[in-house]
Amino acid sequence: MASLARLRSRLPLTKSGRFAPFVRSLQTSADSTQLTQSIPEDGSTPFSVKLHEDSFRAYHTETPSLEVEVTKDSLLKMYKEMVTMRRMEQSADALYKSKLIRGFCHLAIGQEAVAVGLESSITKDDMVITAYRCHPFAVLRGGTVTGVLGELLGRQVGMSNGKGGSMHIFTPNFFGGNGIVGAQVPIGAGIAFAQKYLERPTATFALYGDGASNQGQVFEAFNMAKLWNLPCVFVCENNKYGMGTSAERSSSNTEYFTRGDKIPGIQANGMDIIASAQAVKYARDWAVSGKGPLLLEFVTYRYGGHSMSDPGTTYRTREEVQRMRSTQDPIRGLQRYIEEWGVATDADLKASSDAFPPYLLLALDKAAKEEIDKAVEEAKASPVPKTEDLWTDIYYKGTEPSAMRGRERGEVHVY
């Protein structure tokens, strides 16, 4: 009883003087999922694992199931994609520091489980739109590493022909890369409106960061999406810092999954790839089943600064970053699952031989490095856009005017 009294003395009080109910906190370990059955020999046969009981929190809805089915193939595929995305971003970091990439450049090193987990649980017909930390999404949504790096370098091989840069990369089912803070959220609601209008069984995932969460247009989009019951999942990538300001200093309510008023929400561990994928599966099923919008908050972490101009150490300590790298890294977490569950050994993951069965996806680290190194050279070898290319890609093809005026009245281009 004495210990209970001590516990109660530490609990917060409500305005009425009563003890506030105990709320479990989300855990963000990258390797807390447990294997619950033996792994089959075949790479495509599902087997069951169980997520940590605090992998999710819910607001006005149930949490996703902790029981998840995965396969050897899916785990190895996610590992390869995460490793490739990280190496791509690291190469962009090196190219920027070599002054080959100019302007704005925002990297997603540390947040790979969000992009890869999202892509693994949606279809190619679903739509995705995000802010400026967009490079992994662009590749996973049908682009190429060469196309992304070429765009960063301002070369013709870039996904926007070298004219968009880091924040303006698109595919038919990926609406970018957007540079205006929070502006992509109402656009995402508009895409979801089109999906509902066309009666398509698909969902839109509109991503934004904790730094954009206080934008008025974000709440306006929430309201319209709920009013019209749109199949839109609003995804907050909460990496703890909006530029150089911590979430606690900028937001009175840091539980971003509860900010939708009448829109239900899910908070998920964004450092465990299996938890991330399960949360997205739940969110997509919710949206396409006609239940309307949903808020999904991923609690994640970026290792670098907000952008390449931010060292990322003036508002947090180097020890904090190193602790996250060493204890909660999403790639290391998945690697631990693969090794401990017997999906593949560490030697398999780093092997150089191609003589093993394809489903093991061996030599993943080596293959990722070779892919990125090749893409870097291809991007660097591509020429910069021609002067006449400045007149193209202004209008949707087939809708151009007969002529376009340039910087001066006499500078006119005739199509």
Automatic annotation (TrEMBL):
It catalyses: N(6)-[(R)-lipoyl]-L-lysyl-[protein] + pyruvate + H(+) = N(6)-[(R)-S(8)-acetyldihydrolipoyl]-L-lysyl-[protein] + CO2. Its cofactor is thiamine diphosphate. One of its GO terms (biological process) is pyruvate decarboxylation to acetyl-CoA. Pfam families: E1_dh (PF00676). One of its GO terms (molecular function) is pyruvate dehydrogenase (acetyl-transferring) activity. Its EC number is 1.2.4.1. CDD domains: TPP_E1_PDC_ADC_BCADC. Residues 81-386 form the Dehydrogenase E1 component domain. InterPro entries: DH_E1, PDH_E1_Alpha_Subunit, Pyrv_DH_E1_asu_subgrp-y, THDP-binding. It comes from the Eukaryota. Keywords: Oxidoreductase, Pyruvate, Thiamine pyrophosphate. The pyruvate dehydrogenase complex catalyzes the overall conversion of pyruvate to acetyl-CoA and CO(2). NCBIfam families: PDH_E1_alph_y. This is Pyruvate dehydrogenase E1 component subunit alpha.
